[in-house]
Amino acid sequence: MSKDFKDKVVVITGASSGIGECTAILFAQHGANVVLCGRDEQKLSSALQKCQEKSGGNVDKHLAVQGDITDSQVRRRIVQQTIDKFGHLDVLVSNAGIITKNISLEDATEEAFDLTISTNVKAGFFLIQEAIPHLEKSQGCIVVVSSITSTVAVPYEIIYGMSKAAVDYMTKTYALGLAPKGIRVNAINPTAVSFTRFERYYCDEEESRVSYLKYASQQPLYRRNSTPEEQAQTILFLASSAASFITGQCVNVDGGCSLAGPQVDY
């Protein structure tokens, strides 16, 4: 796959840390021109520098676009700056999202609901819409980052899980609708991923940390959580020509977690 992405243009949202950052670095390593998008300017700059290092220090090969993906002007700016700099777009990785921590069925608020749906569903939906004309020209593809909570019920993550169920449906429907244009659309559905916002959220309090470590130890494969690099490798595959006849799929990258269900205390 190393030659697949030479001079391809890849836009990645949520690229300042975790899965997004690892994905950006991996695409840069495989020769792509990467557009990194994120809210945190300092972290985004650090991720950009890592991509430049993978490209032999070439500071012109990649681009960082700072902003909140829920803002329609930011979404338009991401696509426009990509086209202005590189002239085309080949791959869109819709990764940006938030997780609502430990919200019970009784305590869920409208504020948390609106913020989660706006970030995890609405922003990705309309960014894809902005990118379609350019992806059609390049016969490009889209990879969306969903979650196994889209199909595995977790009561304290009800809002997050609902948002990811919507992301799965969006993935499949966009795949069917965009197939005549030659655009492939797939998703990855990770389990808990180490060194990401999931781990930060669930390890800031001792009780949550104990539950998190128990969850990791009960993962069917290897008795650990996934790494961002493992998720990034799957994204790279789905965006490559090796996956040229794959579309509309939501791929569980979860070490078998979805087979057994989350072994956690509710």
UniProtKB/TrEMBL annotation:
<dbReference type="InterPro" id="IPR002347">
    <property type="entry name" value="SDR_fam"/>
</dbReference>
<protein>
    <submittedName>
        <fullName>Uncharacterized protein</fullName>
    </submittedName>
</protein>
<dbReference type="Pfam" id="PF13561">
    <property type="entry name" value="adh_short_C2"/>
</dbReference>
<dbReference type="InterPro" id="IPR020904">
    <property type="entry name" value="Sc_DH/Rdtase_CS"/>
</dbReference>
<dbReference type="GO" id="GO:0016491">
    <property type="term" value="F:oxidoreductase activity"/>
</dbReference>
<dbReference type="InterPro" id="IPR036291">
    <property type="entry name" value="NAD(P)-bd_dom_sf"/>
</dbReference>
<keyword id="KW-0560">Oxidoreductase</keyword>
